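Hi R.,

As promised on Friday, here is the backbone we talked about, encoded as structure tokens. Could you run it through your design pipeline when you get a chance and send me back a sequence?
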């Protein structure tokens, strides 16, 4: 029989019926907190900065001060940002499901910010690392930041990376650059969650970057239903049972918490 309910109501029913849920987030999740996405025209980071010059291991080897300064600018922006209503809705939803015993919620994010955690949600699986966990580029030991946090000028300024306390090597941002493998523990946690869930809710990702974008497809193959929240078109449009066209901070409270 044809489903004549409005998509939001039908999507809410699908969520209520699901036992294990994975929420898979991308940069659009944090856009309304003032953290820029990567690929949105005009406002995306890659519209203003070169990924090749800033987000590859070769770039860091060539010009560590340029790369470190840019990431310090990004870190300062995220520190100044606050979780939005979408992050808070996910946190509230996960807490409610845990209290009711109505099924687990795993948050898998491509984001390198800490806004899911600061909203009080479950610790997210960070596929692309974190802006807040630098490590030594030579020996891999975890490092600490110097106190300097440049907020000006836009895009940061050249800044020498702090030195490793163990070996004296230059610290590097703890994020995953193009051409690098994803952290093994995060990948296997995400992969297991995808294999064992009934529903994946994709929020604010263009689904263009692999291997992360393959994870919801993996869940789909294992029998899960896909839902999507995004104001734009993405590679998941054709795969999702429901495409809720809107922003994370407006749709998620209505979808997950019933705040219309
Ligand atoms: C809203 C909204 C609102 C707006 N509300 N929504 C297969 C084919 C071709 C290439 C490859 C392939 N497999 C691998 C590759 C190469 C490459 C890749 O995928 N390239 C593609 C771009 C073609 N992948 C890699 O290099 C990966 N590594 C790898 O493959 O290694 C192989 C290897 C294996 C073993 C050993 C060694 C090597 C690594 C990828 C790492 C990605 N890193 C970045 C930077 C992280 C650090 C940093 O932050 O600087 O991760 S790139 C960037 O893209 C970042 C993001 O996590 C990632 C995904 O972006 P996301 O989140 O989807 O953001 P956007 O901007 O693309 O989309 C935003 C969306 O939000 C849009 O849809 C908007 O509509 C929406 N939106 N406002 C809701 N308010
Ligand atoms: Zn070291």
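Update: got your reply. Pasting your designed sequence below so it's all in one thread:
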């Amino acid at each position: 029989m044809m489903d004549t309910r409005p998509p939001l109501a039908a999507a809410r029913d699908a969520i209520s019926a699901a036992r294990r849920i994975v929420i898979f987030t991308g940069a659009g999740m944090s856009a309304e907190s003032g953290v820029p996405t990567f690929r949105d025209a005009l406002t995306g980071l890659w519209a203003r900065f070169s990924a090749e010059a800033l987000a590859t291991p070769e770039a860091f080897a060539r010009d560590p001060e340029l790369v470190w300064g840019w990431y310090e600018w990004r870190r300062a922006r995220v520190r100044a940002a606050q979780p939005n209503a979408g992050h808070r809705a996910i946190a509230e939803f996960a807490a409610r499901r845990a209290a009711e015993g109505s099924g687990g919620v795993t948050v898998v994010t491509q984001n390198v910010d800490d806004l899911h955690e600061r909203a009080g949600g479950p610790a997210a699986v960070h596929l692309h690392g974190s802006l807040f966990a630098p490590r030594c580029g030579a020996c891999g030991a975890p490092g600490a930041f110097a106190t300097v946090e440049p907020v000006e000028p836009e895009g940061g300024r050249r800044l020498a990376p702090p030195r490793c306390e163990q070996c004296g090597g230059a610290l590097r941002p703890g994020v995953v650059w193009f051409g690098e493998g994803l952290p093994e523990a995060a990948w296997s946690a995400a992969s297991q969650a995808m294999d064992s869930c009934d529903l994946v809710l994709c929020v604010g990702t263009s689904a263009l970057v692999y291997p992360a974008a393959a994870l919801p497809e993996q869940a789909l193959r294992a029998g899960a239903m896909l839902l999507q929240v995004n104001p734009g078109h993405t590679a998941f449009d054709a795969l999702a049972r429901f495409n809720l066209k809107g922003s994370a901070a407006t749709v998620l409270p209505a979808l997950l918490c019933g705040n219309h």
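One thing I noticed while checking it: The chain has a mean pLDDT of 95.

Thanks again,
M.
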